[in-house]
Design a protein that fits this description.
mainly alpha, two-stranded antiparallel ribbon, 8 helices
Length: 236
């Protein structure tokens, strides 16, 4: 299976999500995961396309690379995976690249359910949130298998942390939500910033959502002191 085919399918899936076509996106993403599971991937080799040359960038409804509005509670933009312009038709899928692509698929599946939990009034939000949470956790575990220090995974990881924290918070899992915020803060602290508008805007977005989430938790602690006691009971 050629990498270019998978990248094209992923872009189409992200485009479906951008236009609210979650059923079509989910069907396409599940198909990609099945292909990745059944394809005989190649071991990583010095002549293979390095996984750290892939770029994970969010795309808007207009299919443009961009950053969501800062007033969003979670990261609503799907990711496209971009390969170097020198990618040839002979580039096959290696084990690290297969893991990276699977991680993106899991994140996008989670995003379908996450957005649906806010917009679909006919379906129980809790059901969608639990599905989103499960897919986000799969995405995190899959991406964590890779040497993320060597790749452009920072914003994808930030999106996973932000959205998983939001799901946990809305499900009443406050301690788990705080743990994901701590993961996000660690990435924010260590990520090297490039001097381009998109990188700076995305970094600011995640900084703002992190601060807002922590502010909400502090407000709830003041308004509902029993939450503090409940958290302490969980830890003992």
């Amino acid at each position: 299976m050629q990498l270019s085919f998978i990248l094209s399918s992923l872009f189409e899936s992200s485009n479906y999500i951008s236009h609210g076509k979650f059923g079509e996106a989910s069907q396409r993403l599940v198909g990609i995961l099945r292909v990745l599971q059944t394809t005989r991937v190649q071991p990583d080799h010095h002549s293979s396309l390095p996984v750290n040359t892939l770029r994970f960038l969010p795309i808007s409804r207009e299919s443009r690379i961009g950053c969501p509005d800062w007033n969003e509670e979670f990261f609503r933009f799907p990711f496209a995976v971009l390969a170097p312009e020198t990618l040839g038709s002979s580039n096959m899928i290696t084990e690290p690249i297969a893991a990276a692509l699977a991680g993106v698929c899991f994140f996008l599946l989670g995003l379908c359910h996450h957005i649906n939990s806010s917009e679909n009034k006919r379906q129980c939000p809790e059901t969608s949130l639990r599905s989103a949470l499960s897919f986000y956790e799969h995405a995190w575990r899959t991406i964590s298998q890779l040497d993320t220090d060597q790749g452009g995974f920072d914003f994808l990881q930030m999106a996973i942390c932000t959205n998983t924290s939001n799901c946990c918070y809305r499900l009443g899992q406050i301690e788990a939500s705080n743990e994901w915020q701590a993961e996000l803060d660690e990435i924010l602290f260590n990520v090297p910033l490039k001097d381009d508008d998109l990188t700076l805007e995305l970094h600011d977005f995640f900084m703002m959502t992190s601060a807002a989430a922590q502010g909400l938790w502090q407000q709830e602690q003041l308004e509902n002191p029993e939450l503090i006691n409940d958290e302490q009971k969980l830890c003992t």
